[in-house]
Each structure stands twice: as structure tokens, then as C-alpha cells.
Amino acid sequence: MTEIQDLSDTLRKFAEDRYWQGYHTPENLAKSISIEAGELLECFQWNHSYTHRAVYEEMADVFIYLVQLADTLKIDLIGAAYAKMADNDKRYPVAKCHGKVIKRTLRWKDIDHLGCIDCENFDGDRELEEGNCMGELKDFCKEHFNAGL
């Protein structure tokens, strides 16, 4: 048995002992993850003087709810994380992404602040070609880009 499985069993028993399992629906657990993630973010709000203990506790809360959601939905968290990393490795190969931040599903409407929204050919829901976003933007809307972009 893995540590995640052990923790999942412990959390399930904890909820069962208190007759809380009826409250642990996927929807409620997902909401709780979001709420606790907000509390984690709150540790860093306004300044950099967070306490290690507060971050530790909020991270534990997020993790606990995530493990409970995975248990409820019968998802292998470790397997899902490795599968996601393998997918990310294919989507963002080092040769194309080293030192760059690339949004995989950038849509035209995501960049309307650049002025292209006024173009007659603008289709805000069309995806930009992966890996060639700036080249495609320059070709599509040359009048809005200078040569240095």
C-alpha cells in the first residue's frame, strides 16, 4: 500500500467515524479545495511576511481535500500526475519552450488588447497555432505589430 492510499484510508475512516461521508460529494470536495487554496493564497497577500506554519497548514488542507476527492472519484493521483507530466512533456518540448512561457490554447480573444479585435477578419474563438503564436499573429494582423515583435 502507498502513502497516498494509507492517507486516503485514514481520511475515509475519519469521515465515516463522524458520519460526514454524505457531505463529501465531488462538488463539495472541489469547492473545499478552491476555498482552501484561497486561504493558502491569503498567506501571501499584501506582503512577503507569511508564516511557515500558516502555509504548512493550508497546504495540508488543500492536499487532504484533493486526496479525498481522488478517493471519491477513484482517481489514482500519482498516476494522474505522471500521466499529466508525460502529456506536458509532449505539449511543451524543451526545444520549443526552454526559457519561454507558452499558453497552449491561446485564442485570438485572449490577445484582443493588442488591437486585433478591430480587424475585419477577427475570429475571437479561433485557436492560435501551437508553438507559432507570434508568427501567426504577425501574419494575421501585420498593421498592429511592429517589426520587433
Detailed description of the structure:
The protein is mainly alpha-helical and 149 residues long. It folds into two domains: 89 residues, Helix Hairpins (Orthogonal Bundle); 37 residues, no CATH class. It contains six helices and no strands. The N and C termini lie far apart (53 Å). The relative contact order is 0.08. The C terminus is likely disordered.
In short:
54% of the residues lie in helices and 0% in strands.
Helices, by number, come to 6
Encode the helix/strand succession as letters: HHHHHH
Tell me the number of strands: 0
* CATH class category label of the largest domain: Mainly Alpha
Mean pLDDT, all residues: 80
Architecture blueprint of SSEs:
Elements (H helix, E strand, L loop, with lengths): L2 H15 L8 H17 L9 H22 L3 H15 L2 H4 L35 H8 L9
Task: Using brief descriptors, characterize the structure shown.
single chain; 149 residues; mainly alpha; Helix Hairpins; 2 domains; 54% helix; globular
